[in-house]
Specification:
mainly beta; seven-stranded mixed β-sheet; four-stranded antiparallel β-sheet; 11 strands; 0% helix
Length: 121
Amino acid sequence: QVQLVESGGGLVQAGGSLRLSCAASERTFRTYTMGWFRQAPGKEREFVASIRWITGKTTYADSVKGRFTISGDNTKNTNTLYIQMNNLEPEDTAVYYCAAATIINGGYNYWGQGTQVTVSS
């Protein structure tokens, strides 16, 4: 079973930046779309950003537009996903999850374990 492993979380002051990474345990893992989600304490998991490899199209939640940038590499021998988070706000505090869709036009069927991001005011 392929695993998605996130890294890069931590504690940062408001206005600061973090870059999260997500790597698949198998380099040949092929995906159509990958994305980031987050879940804050007491709240439901919410969409943050996604990238569709075939078209390169990126999509963002309104709350992070202009502050977060999703990118990655889905070439033959690698499968990694990043999200650069700038101008972080305390409201961005959450566990961030990487997700992958391996069926075209299907939902996300692989999920990472999450990495904690805490933004202090």
